[in-house]
């Protein structure tokens, strides 16, 4: 079974993203974490295939958390979803091992589905018209 973890401190955003994923991927198992400590526990116990990771978490930086997760489990795909759409964050996220970087400012159901498809197939992003908001390596 495919498993996805949403690491986000804002409950409403976690819920919204979870609803999109549950609707479009009903066979997936979903889990949530509101902070870095819980995220690491979920990675260990839930063993997700895909993680949606916020950068600004109460107890940890999502970029550092991504680097730690990828060091132990390189096969987990991490998609950074953040309000901090800055080139230095984008670069740091990709260097930490994230597959994609999505700005919350442009986040939509279509972009989430596009990122999931890209992550699952290994195809590259950004797509035309999204080059400033959706980044992959």
Automatic annotation (TrEMBL):
Annotated transmembrane regions: none
| Protein name (record) | Transcriptional regulatory protein DegU
Mind listing the UniProt keywords for this protein, alphabetically? Phosphoprotein
Q: Which InterPro entries match?
A: Bact_response_regulator (IPR050595), CheY-like_superfamily (IPR011006), NreC/VraR/RcsB-like_REC (IPR058245), Sig_transdc_resp-reg_receiver (IPR001789)
Q: A biological process (GO) annotation for this entry?
A: phosphorelay signal transduction system
Q: Which organism is it from?
A: mine drainage metagenome
Which intervals hold domain Response regulatory?
A: 3-119
